[in-house]
Amino acid sequence: MSIFDRFKKTKKGMRKAEIHVHPVRPRMSNGAGSAHANEKAVKKEKVKEAEMKEIKEEKAIKLPKRVEKKAFSDAWRILESPHVTEKSGMLAEKNHYVFKVSPSANKQQIKQAVQDLYGVAVEKVRIINIPRKARRLGKSQGFKPGFRKAMVKLIQGEKIEIMPR
């Protein structure tokens, strides 16, 4: 037997190692005492399943952190303006908000600035660098300046009023 026999394919794509796997045999019952033990085991399994279900539900529901809106902060140095487009309007329904930000700002600074300015809890920040674009008017050629854009995801239940109604 060579070292590679384990990986040779046989029977329609199955490996030899998969073919020779022996199934686990159930235990044989010895009488009346084992029926009682089986009932206890079934009850324990049900209790464990219920506990695991409760733990999963607790993890799924995230309570928003209490974030206070600050009266004075340096958020205006980091957040230049909200980026209002049709796409950003659709993203706002999904709890994502788009801002034009300072070219030197990082994710932590943007997160802190949004929390200070709007008083909401931020879950995630994504940053995109939009490059400058060439524009022409007759013979003269110029450039439309690029900018840095941040997509901020808020914790479920939080909301920002960007456009006053």
From TrEMBL:
Gene Ontology CC: ribonucleoprotein complex; ribosome
Ranges annotated as biased composition (Basic and acidic residues): 37-46
Which keywords does UniProt give here?
Answer: Ribonucleoprotein, Ribosomal protein, RNA-binding, rRNA-binding
Q: Which Gene Ontology BP annotations are present?
A: translation
- The record's region (Disordered) falls at 25-46
The record's annotation in InterPro entries points to: Nucleotide-bd_a/b_plait_sf, Ribosomal_uL23-like, Ribosomal_uL23/eL15/eS24_sf
GO function term, MF aspect, one? structural constituent of ribosome
Q: Does the keyword Protein transport apply?
A: no
State the protein's purpose.
Answer: One of the early assembly proteins it binds 23S rRNA. One of the proteins that surrounds the polypeptide exit tunnel on the outside of the ribosome. Forms the main docking site for trigger factor binding to the ribosome.
Q: Which family does it belong to?
A: Belongs to the universal ribosomal protein uL23 family.
Q: How does it assemble?
A: Part of the 50S ribosomal subunit. Contacts protein L29, and trigger factor when it is bound to the ribosome.
The protein's name is Large ribosomal subunit protein uL23
Which organism does this record belong to? Candidatus Portnoybacteria bacterium CG_4_8_14_3_um_filter_40_10
Name of the gene:
rplW
